[in-house]
Amino acid sequence: MSGPVLGLVACAAGGIEDLRTQLIEPMQADGWTVAVTLTPTAATWLRASGEFDEIQEATGLAVRDQARLPTEASPHPQVDCYAVVPATANTVAKLALGIADNHALTGVSEAIGNGTPPIVVFPRINAAHAAHPAWRGHVDTLQRVGVHLVVGDDVWPLHAPRSAPGRQLPWATIRTTILRAAAGP
C-alpha cells in the first residue's frame, strides 16, 4: 500500500449503503488507502446488505467492528486522516464528550485528544437532532479542537425527521473536505 491512509469510521445512518461506491472507491482512485471501521450496528446493516464483504474486497483490508486482542497486530496501517461518515448524532455527542464505548470511536477519540491526525465528521442528522439543547455545545467543542465538520444549509439542509428519505449524502463535499484537511493549514 502506498499513498495516504484514510481511517474511515462509519455509523448506522442513511447513506452508509453508498459508502463503497461514493467515498471508498473515489478516494482509492485519488491514491488513498482506505481502512474501514464500523460501529456495531453499522456492521450489522452492511453484513445484511452484502456491502461488508464488498468493502473488504475493495479495500483489501479487514473491515473492523470489534476490538482486537492485545496480542494481535492491527490489521490497519497508520492513519493520515480520519473521516467519520456518516456520523449519527449519538456519535457526534460521544466524540465531543470523549466517550469511546465501541471500537469505532476509540481511534478517533484518541486523535481528538492528541490533535492529530486531522478528523473530518459528516453529521447525518435532522432538524430535531440539531434542535436539542446540547447539540450546539457538541459542535462547538469539536470545532474548537480542530475537527472539520461538514455542516451547513448549503451542504446538508436539515429537515424534520423522516421527511426527506432517500437523500444522497454530499459526497463530493465530504471528499473535498477530507483532501483539504489532510493537506493541512
Task: Please describe what this structure looks like.
It is a single chain. The chain is an alpha/beta fold. It has 8 helices and 5 strands, in the order E-H-E-H-H-E-H-H-E-H-H-E-H. 43% of the residues lie in helices and 14% in strands. It has a single domain (5-183), classed as Rossmann fold (3-Layer(aba) Sandwich). A 5-stranded parallel β-sheet has the order 2-1-3-4-5, with helices on both faces. Helix 1 (19-29) runs parallel beside helix 8 and helix 4 crosses helix 7 (135-144).
SSE inventory with pairings:
Layout (H helix, E strand, L loop, with lengths): L4 E6 L8 H11 L3 E6 L1 H10 L1 H9 L21 E7 L1 H9 L5 H12 L4 E5 L3 H5 L3 H10 L3 E2 L21 H13 L2
Parallel strand pairs: 1-2, 1-3, 3-4, 4-5
User: Largest sheet, if any?
Assistant: 5 strands, parallel
Question: How would you classify the helix and strand content by structural class?
Answer: alpha/beta
User: How are the strands ordered across the major sheet?
Assistant: 2-1-3-4-5
Q: Nearest-angstrom radius of gyration? A: 15 Å
N-to-C span: 26 Å
CATH H-level superfamily: Flavin prenyltransferase-like
- Give the CATH level 1 class: Alpha Beta
CATH architectural name: 3-Layer(aba) Sandwich
How many helices? The count is 8
Q: In which range does the helix fraction lie?
A: 40-55%
Q: Looking at the structure, what is the overall shape? A: globular
Order of helical and strand elements = EHEHHEHHEHHEH
Strand content: 5-15%
Mean pLDDT across residues? 94
Number of domains: 1
